[in-house]
Predict the structure.
Amino acid sequence: DGGITQSPKYLFRKEGQNVTLSCEQNLNHDAMYWYRQDPGQGLRLIYYSQIVNDFQKGDIAEGYSVSREKKESFPLTVTSAQKNPTAFYLCASSRGQKANEKLFFGSGTQLSVL
Amino acid sequence: AQSVTQLGSHVSVSEGALVLLRCNYSSSVPPYLFWYVQYPNQGLQLLLKYTTGATLVKGINGFEAEFKKSETSFHLTKPSAHMSDAAEYFCAVSEGSGTYKYIFGTGTRLKVLA
């Protein structure tokens, strides 16, 4: 079955460490997104990519970086510059870039600080 | 600028009772509206969406929502709650030319009492 795979499910970060969250999709979708979810705050957009080798900052990009070298992969790096990284991170994709497109989500990665 | 307000961060209903989750939006142009559901430690999945046409939209699992332009509302309902409906529900609005313009509400956690 097609879908989005996020790994790992749980991740722990030490002070000053960069960590990378994996997101892979086999839906052949052009667009991919990273959202951060905090309790009571809904989902906030970190980065998005509409095509390979291109990505744009979302609303809360500071302290994060991404790459899109392959259509099916969109990894997110949480850098040491992100001072409050503890959150649930969701990767999503959509077939196109129209505003009425449905988003498909992965099952998320819970990141915590040691 | 578009925004979404979900009234009630927690809603409790008895099994078999009506479910009503409220969503109001603000948009400068006709919006696209969505309801997503999230089960614990999982990603979001689409329940239903309104794009154009019929204002009463039916979704999965017996849920439906009505777009009321005059009230700028898109409330989610289900006639009879089931224990399996316990989850967090997110209303979202999108406008313009890209899905990266999704704005999510802060979510409503539904509890179903036996």
Observations:
- The two ends of chain A are 36 Å apart (CA to CA).
- The longest strand of chain A covers residues 42-51.
